[in-house]
Amino acid sequence: MKWEDGDASGNVEDRRGMGGGIIGLIVMAVAFYMTGDLRQAKFIADRVGPVVNKAVPPRNPGQGKAGVNDRMLDFSKKIMGYTDSAWADVFAIHGKRYEKPTLVLFTDRVDSEGCGVAPSSVGPFYCPASRKVFVDPSFFEELESRLKGSKADFSKAYVIAHEVGHNVQNLLGYNKLVEQYRRREGENAGIRLELQADYLAGVCWNRVERERSIIEPGDVESAITTAKAIGDDRLQKNARGWVNPESFNHGTSEQRLKWFTEGLRTGDAEKKALDRFFNPNIPPLKL
Ligand SMILES: [Zn+2]
């Protein structure tokens, strides 16, 4: 994937190294000293840490870390730039304004500003309340080790575009719609939203590709491998006290694959194409 020539998005927050790291440990040590109770100290650190983090600016804001991590920051900005312009175009066609999400890079844990404090084990996720996408780069390092080198780039781009897809759903009202289905279909209703997000990720890269031609041979296959690998339960790991918007069923890997490639093939963002996922006659597991 030739991502380097894109326009960098200004909506990327670099919070790497600020998570539960040193500040969390200091808060925990102080709390332990004061309470003498390790469990209570951890409870306090989990809640106070993110607040302190917000108040203390990072040492080199926007600079990230040296070496391989700078590529991560650069990559994230460019990928968000591509998704921003693709969706701004689609929304403009329909006379709407696209409100860009912010991507937050973090390590260990992060305050999602509306969806609780998340440990990195939950995987990439989108918080509708803050309209932010959260990614711990260690998730991407895992993908890289599995996919070997540059072929992992489009897989990462797919994952980011899936989360950005949740922002599109948020803006178009599908997030609210799924609540109605939840009463009838329980947690499986979430599959509708997840598969639509995969479809939207495909649509997004179709639109980018039409303009810039950046996808290389092998890229789509690697993203498909990723879609398979992260189907079902990869993003479902949960932690206590944390409402994870990605905690529901994502559908089977076959379903994810089907809809991502369909979006990639057609680039169709018309209402009819998007409403398919909310057809009451088709149960979520049959989509
Ligand atoms: Zn999702």
Mind explaining what this structure looks like?
By secondary structure, the protein is of the alpha/beta class. It has 2 domains: about 20-55, no CATH class; about 70-100 and about 145-285, no CATH class. The chain is about 55% helix and about 10% strand. The protein is built from 10 helices and 6 strands. The protein has helices at about 20-35, 40-55, 70-95, 135-145, 150-170, 175-185, 190-210, 220-230, 255-265, 270-275, and strands at about 10-15, 100-105, 110, 115-120, 125, 130-135. The strands form 2 sheets. The chain has a 4-stranded mixed β-sheet with strand order 1-2-6-5. The chain has a two-stranded antiparallel sheet with strand order 3-4. The radius of gyration is 19 Å and the shape is globular. The two termini are about 30 Å apart. Mean pLDDT is about 85; it is low at about 60-65 and about 230-245. Bound molecules: zinc ion (ZN). The site of zinc ion has 5 residues, from helix 5 and helix 7.
Low-confidence stretches: 59-66, 231-245
- Report mean pLDDT, rounded to a whole number: 83
Question: What integer value in Å does the Rg equal?
Answer: 19 Å
Percent strand equals: 5-15%
Q: Which cofactor or ligand species appear?
A: zinc ion
List the helices and strands and how they pair.
Layout: E1 12-15, H1 22-35, H2 38-55, H3 68-93, E2 102-106, E3 109-111, E4 117-119, E5 125-127, E6 132-135, H4 137-147, H5 152-172, H6 174-185, H7 189-212, H8 219-229, H9 253-266, H10 271-275
Parallel strand pairs: 1-2, 2-6
Antiparallel strand pairs: 3-4, 5-6
The structure holds zinc ion.
